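Reopening this one. Same input as before:
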Amino acid sequence: MACSCSTPSPKSPAPGFRRALWIALWVNLAMFLVEGIASLQSGSVSLMADAIDFFGDSANYVLSLSVLGMGMLWRGRAAMVKGVTMAVFGLVVWGRGIWVMQSDITPEPLTMGLVGFLALAANFSVAALLFHYRDGDSDMRSVWLCSRNDAIGNIAVMAAALGVFGTGTAWPDLVVAAIMGTLAFTAGISVVRHARTDIAGARLNAAETSQACRSELS
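Same output, byte for byte:
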């Protein structure tokens, strides 16, 4: 007798999530270019950190779109990759901040503030778009955390611009960059933990299904 058990079909993504990811992808790519150029012109570490984060988020959205129709195991693995990259990004920002601190470079605050405000508007729109999916699986949660962190980071960049303008030093920019790096690192660890839970659950379900099939055949 043929085994009537079968591997559960992949859980369909929440309605509208794919479209939201595409919108988020294009917004992040555009802002990566804008902030990347602005960071070079202004010499701001926090602005450069935010630009790199936009690029990382874009790559993560592509990864999310590629596994959207797959099973929980693969989606958990994708989230694991994203969590690790978020944590590494945080460490890179810390390293960049230390290098700039030793170089004694003071950024240009007006560019920081204007571009930071533009990035905030973009990220607030994306975060609002993805807010509905924040309590989904680890892949959805990682997407939401990326957008949330970006919006917080943009506010911090504008605060750093005011600090640089008021003090005439790079310290406000460096402090904000350090905070952004810490936020990325801790969010990455959170996503990794959630992804491990999803992966373990997917493997347990697969093992139980396989055991059920063997029991039915015997």
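So the earlier flakiness isn't reproducible anymore. For the record, The two ends are 10 Å apart (CA to CA).
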